[in-house]
């Protein structure tokens, strides 16, 4: 059973995921923020994969 996916929601989820990964990537050289970097990287990966899946579901 498929459900309708709004393209704007898929794009926003993808942008948020890419932004989280970019934030984690740019903060990795700071010595005092090691634990927050992994959290942002994990969230970025999850949101990016989710955004790609939503885009695929929209176009199918």
User: Termini distance?
Assistant: 12 Å
What pattern of helices and strands is seen along the backbone? HH
Question: How many helices in DSSP terms?
Answer: 2
What's the count of strands?
A: 0
Query: What kind of sheet is the major sheet?
Result: none
The helicity comes to: over 70%
**Helical/strand content category:** mainly alpha
Contiguous runs where pLDDT drops below 50 for at least 5 residues = none
Molecular shape: elongated
Radius of gyration computed on alpha carbons: 14 Å
Taking all residues together, what is the mean pLDDT?
A: 87
Indicate the proportion of strand residues. Answer: under 5%
Q: Provide the domain count.
A: 1
Keywords: Membrane, Transmembrane, Transmembrane helix
Transmembrane segments: 6-25, 37-59
Write the layout of secondary structure elements.
Blueprint: H1 7-27, H2 34-59
Please tell me about this protein's structure:
The structure is a single chain. The protein is an all-alpha fold and 60 residues long. It has one domain (7-59). The protein has helices spanning 7-27, 34-59. The longest helix is centred in the C-terminal third of the chain and has 26 residues, at 34-59. The radius of gyration is 14 Å and the shape is elongated. The model has no long low-confidence stretch (mean pLDDT 87). The chain crosses the membrane at residues 6-25, 37-59. Keywords: Membrane, Transmembrane, Transmembrane helix.
Write a compact overview of the structure shown.
The chain has 60 residues and is mainly alpha-helical. Helices cover 78% and strands 0% of the residues. The chain has one domain (7-59).
């Amino acid at each position: 059973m498929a459900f309708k996916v709004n393209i704007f929601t898929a794009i926003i989820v993808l942008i948020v995921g890419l932004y989280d990964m970019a934030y984690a990537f740019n903060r990795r050289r700071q010595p005092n923020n090691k634990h927050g970097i992994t959290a942002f990287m994990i969230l970025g990966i999850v949101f990016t994969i989710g955004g790609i899946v939503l885009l695929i579901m929209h176009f199918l």
